[in-house]
Amino acid sequence: MFSVGELVVYPAQGVGRVEKIEEQDLNGAKTNLYIVRILSNNVTLMVPVDNADSVGLRPVSGKKQGQKILNFLSDRSDFTGYSGQNWNRRYREYSEKLKSKDIIDVAYVLKELFLISRDKELSFGERRLLEQAMGLVSMELAYALKMDQSQAKSKVEGLFSDILTPEVLEEKNQE
Predict the structure, then answer these.
(1) Which residues pair with 44 in a beta bridge?
(2) Which residues neighbour 132 within 8 Å (Cβ) at sequence distance 6 or greater?
(3) Is residue 150 domain-resident?
(4) Residue 32 pairs with which residues in a beta bridge?
(5) 87-146 tens-digit pLDDT
(6) How far is residue 26's CA from residue 58's CA, in Å, rounded to a whole number?
(7) What integer pLDDT is reported at residue 167 of this predicted model?
């Protein structure tokens, strides 16, 4: 059970803070809910306490897991490429992974899209997924490694500096 003030991660939304735990009447049944405010966009979520695990609500990664994420991102031995796999299938696979409660699945999407971008220009949909994965990973890394999100994002981009061209890096700095 999470407590008020605790940082948590909600899949596909990112890091949030449990603002309160309240009891509400839903369809005639009293239900305890976590009221979670997502830090990146100020969205408020109501998550039933009894279903928190099944929807993927989990604590923010610690320093050890943060380092594991960085190690995973820097290891390119598992990259198989995208040849023979159509975009629709990859899009569905990546979208599902972004909803996963395992941050390594989200990091997988980030790594794959960065590595695909070295061989071809990413489509609009691929760029959106890359941005979403970067936001989720960098936000969690920031809390896990006790740094600003911009520092975490720079750290991740540094792992792929051999792929990112100076033009792309300049464009990202202007955002």
Answers:
(1) 37
(2) 12, 98
(3) yes
(4) 23
(5) 788 889 999 999 999 999 999 999 999 988 888 888 899 999 999 999 999 999 999 999
(6) 23
(7) 47
Average pLDDT value for the chain: 89
Burial class (CB in 10 A: 0-12, 13-18, 19+), 17: middle
CA proximity to 151, closest of 162, 139, 160, 163: 139
CATH number at residue 162: 1.20.58.1290
**Does residue 40 share a domain with residue 23?**
yes
18-52 per-residue burial string, b: 16 or more CB within 10 A, e: under 16 = beeeeeeeeeeeeeebbbbebbeeeeebebebeeb
Predicted TM-score of the model (pTM): 0.87
